[in-house]
Structures are given as structure tokens and as C-alpha cells.
């Protein structure tokens, strides 16, 4: 049905003038051609058609809300290892497919609902207006506010409550899709970063031989890397735990140890320090036996292992944590507790 088929008295009144039509001539070759006659939509003429459009828009917004709920449910319920066969894609991750489909449907329905609302229910009367100066006099400001009020009225957001409420629901619910993704940041660390696998009685195990160490196995000037007893490379959390518990053992003549606490926590000149650099967490692997300096190969932070592993060069901000060690009844080196401060890059400055 078009406006030509409707009696003149049933057509909506024009809301704005289209401007005068100009005729091009020698003086004004770019005259304003004016606007074509406005063609009324079926929704402007038939309230039943407008109601159908309103229900269609509300349906799209409702589908968006359901898709958002489906996104959250899929994220929580579907296992990351599950796969499904989707023709013609083949075997793909069920979680990725569900998240992509639900998120895509949610976004599409919000956009489609907004477009359908604008094209069928909002006013589509063309308005021609002379361009005004950049500055806004009071009367222009008043007109802008009046136009805004007219636009709000023409959008029918106050009258079409079903459209308005479902749109607000879809827009309010959709951001929850991003909120639930925060779960992938993992659980709160609690005190995990403050403790390692070292505890009283844990044997120092050589990383190369996988055997417990005796004092006689550590020569003066040597560098040995150790791990806690019971931690094996095939353990699922090996990388996580060794990143905190990796230890380096050096033997220094007791007379050359300058720090009193370091000497007390050592055994016959054998000292144990964290292998994790306090700059950005790189593993320290270089040792100069004449100066007793340990060097991080990443950014050249240098630590004096004869003087409490204090920083003497480079960007590291703190000394390496020392592990207190002793010897058990069987003659093996053992830890006498955990590190007294968290290992790694300046953690204690952050809490």
C-alpha cells in the first residue's frame, strides 16, 4: 500500500517545509533543486502495521537477550576440550563455536532491531535547513533543544514502551558477555606467590642428576642448580612450582662471606639463593668464582653472592632471597624452611 492509495484526509500532516525550489540560471547555476514529494510508509498510515513493526523490533531485542544468556551459559557449561562436527567446517571446538554463534546473534539482533526501528517507526520526513554560522545564538540553542525534544517524540521511545524496554534490556544484558570473560584471568592468587615448595626437611636435589646433594658434592667455586625433593618434571604443575622454587648453590670459603646472616644460614660455606632474578624473573645462570658474582643473562643484573646477594649492577631492585639450609642425619643437604620473602621481580613492593 502506498500513499497514492490512501485518501488525503488519512495521510499524516507534513511536519516540516521542504524549502523553496530554485531554478538554475546564469546568476545562480547551482540553485537548490528542492526535495521530492515525501512518500509515506505503511506504518505511518496503518497503526496495525506499526504494531507489527514494534513487535518485530521487540522480538529482535529479546532474541539478543536470550543469545547473551546463551553465551554466558556456554562459557560456564561447555568444556574447553570438547569438539563437535559442524558441516562443512569439520571438527571444531564446541566452546568456540557456541561462543561465536551466541555472541554474533546477540550483536546482530541489537543492530537489526535498531535498523528496523529506525526504518519503520521513527519519523522519516526529510528536512531542509539553511546552513547557519558556527556560533550559536540563544535562539539557535533553544531551537536545538526543541528539535531534540521533537526527535525524541518522533522516535516514539516514550509511546512504544515494548520497543524501549526490550532495547534497554538487550543493551544492559549484552555487556555481561565481557564480564564473564574475566574468569579467564584465573582465581585470585591469595598467598601462593609468597610461598614455594621449600619447607623444613626438604632435601636439595641436583637438577642434572636428580639425586640429593651432600656437602661433599659441592666444590668451592662451583655453581649447582637444585629443586625441592618430590618435584618431578612430569608433574602437571612443574613449571609453575620450579619458577618459584629454583635454587642455585655455591660454595664460598667461610672467611670470604661478608654478610653475617648469609654465613649463619649457610653450611660450611655452602649458600643457597633463589635462581629467579628480582628484575623480571629471568633464571640466573652465570657465576664468576673469583668475585663471587652471579649474573643474569637477560639484562645483566649482577649480584654479590658473598655479601647477601645484594645488587651491584643492573636494573634489579632487590637482593636475591636466601634459603636457610643444613644437613640431616643422613648427611644430605636440606632446607630449614621456606624463603622468608617472596621470590621474583620486586613482588614485596606490590604487597
UniProtKB/TrEMBL annotation:
Basic and acidic residues bias: start-end ranges: 15-30
UniProt membrane topology term: Multi-pass membrane protein
Region (Disordered): 1-39
Parts forming coiled coils: none
Transmembrane segments: 57-78, 98-118, 162-182
MF GO annotations: 2 iron, 2 sulfur cluster binding; metal ion binding; monooxygenase activity; oxidoreductase activity, acting on paired donors, with incorporation or reduction of molecular oxygen
Gene Ontology CC entries for this record: plasma membrane
Keywords for this protein: 2Fe-2S, Cell membrane, Disulfide bond, Electron transport, Iron, Iron-sulfur, Membrane, Metal-binding, Oxidoreductase, Respiratory chain, Transmembrane, Transmembrane helix, Transport
Cited InterPro entries: QcrA_N (IPR045603), Rieske_2Fe-2S (IPR017941), Rieske_2Fe-2S_sf (IPR036922), Rieske_Fe-S_prot (IPR014349)
Location(s) in or outside the cell: Cell membrane
Chief subcellular location: membrane
Pfam family, one: QcrA_N
Keyword Acetylation: no
Rieske domain sequence ranges: 239-334
UniProt entry tagged with the keyword Hydrolase: no
Similarity comment: Belongs to the Rieske iron-sulfur protein family.
Function: Iron-sulfur subunit of the cytochrome bc1 complex, an essential component of the respiratory electron transport chain required for ATP synthesis. The bc1 complex catalyzes the oxidation of menaquinol and the reduction of cytochrome c in the respiratory chain. The bc1 complex operates through a Q-cycle mechanism that couples electron transfer to generation of the proton gradient that drives ATP synthesis.
Subunit (UniProt): The cytochrome bc1 complex is composed of a cytochrome b (QcrB), the Rieske iron-sulfur protein (QcrA) and a diheme cytochrome c (QcrC) subunit.
Protein name (database record): Cytochrome bc1 complex Rieske iron-sulfur subunit
